[in-house]
Design brief:
It is a single chain. By secondary structure, the chain is an alpha/beta fold. Helix content is 40%, strand content 13%. Helix 9 links the parallel strand 6 and strand 7. The structure holds 3-methyl-2-oxobutanoic acid (KIV). 3-methyl-2-oxobutanoic acid binds next to strand 6.
Length: 268
């Protein structure tokens, strides 16, 4: 079977139908966007996790629309060939209808191809309107970090039968509203599998086991840049923090010892 590389929103559906896993990572800046543009990854999410990863906050709540738009623009410039999803930040889509629509418009005008928003309850009418206006919407349920204070912390969701039922209903409501895919974050793998099987649109899991239609990870976690953050669902594909420190140490040592720059690295 020819591998499908996501090029447009319809390819998400094609991948689910042909049983090919969708791969996504987060991306917040132009230089990593450029590297990812040349990779086989299916799509990039300019996630509001950038508030934590890039701006050093403890939660995603400090992300705002201006911040998200700035990072979306940077990624758009760096990854002209990738399918890009911009994340609507905390409260930006929970105000007046007009303001909510305008928040989605602001992100789309940066050049991303879709927007993501967290939760289903209270968002369905907005999602329907945005989809009817031509904006592809990615849903996000399970652990929704913008509701971290409501949830009592970063913890696995849908663990009891009532919460699992609620999650299944949310997924169906999002599909019905027109979402093209749904992120399932930190839910038991059996529940993620049941949700995935109940939907015709693809699910993208993070901390949701192997039986979703795709996976997403925060790039810096995947690359092992954040050694303090070691949740069960993260696999380090690189020892980024160690390699980074080694490179900086070598540069400092070479400079101190007069080995950098060399003749070749100097202008005549
Ligand atoms: O903001 C983000 O990075 C996300 C992913 C974890 C799905 O929403």
């Amino acid at each position: 079977m020819t591998p499908i590389k996501v090029q447009s929103v319809t390819d998400f559906q094609l991948k689910k139908e042909s049983g090919q896993k969708i791969t996504m990572v987060t991306c917040y800046d132009s230089w990593s966007a450029k590297l990812l543009d040349a990779s086989p990854i299916d799509a990039l999410l300019i996630g509001d996790s950038l508030a934590m990863v890039q701006h050093g906050h403890k939660t995603t709540l400090p992300a705002n629309l201006a911040m998200m738009a700035l990072h979306c623009e940077a990624v758009v410039r760096g990854a002209p060939h990738q399918f890009l999803v911009g994340d609507l930040p905390f409260m930006s889509y929970r105000k007046s209808f007009e303001s909510n629509v305008s928040a989605a418009e602001t992100l789309m005008r940066t050049g991303v191809h879709a927007v993501k928003l967290e939760g289903a309850d209270g968002n369905i009418e907005l999602i329907k309107h945005l989809v009817q206006s031509g904006i592809p919407i990615m849903g996000h349920i399970g652990l929704t970090p913008q509701s971290i204070y409501q949830m009592g912390g970063f913890r696995v969701q849908g663990k009891n039968p009532k919460a699992a039922e609620h999650l299944k209903n949310q997924a169906l409501a999002l599909e019905d509203a027109g979402c093209f895919s749904i992120v399932l974050e930190c839910v038991p793998s059996t529940l993620a599998q049941a949700v995935t099987q109940s939907l015709s649109i693809p699910t993208i899991g993070i901390g949701a086991g192997a039986n979703t239609d795709g996976q997403i990870l925060v790039l810096h976690d995947l690359l092992g840049f954040n050694q303090e953050f070691q949740p069960k669902f993260v696999r380090h594909y690189l020892n980024g923090a160690e390699l980074f420190q080694k490179a900086i140490e070598s540069y400092v040592r070479d400079t101190h010892e007069g080995h950098f720059p060399s003749e070749k690295e100097s202008y005549k």
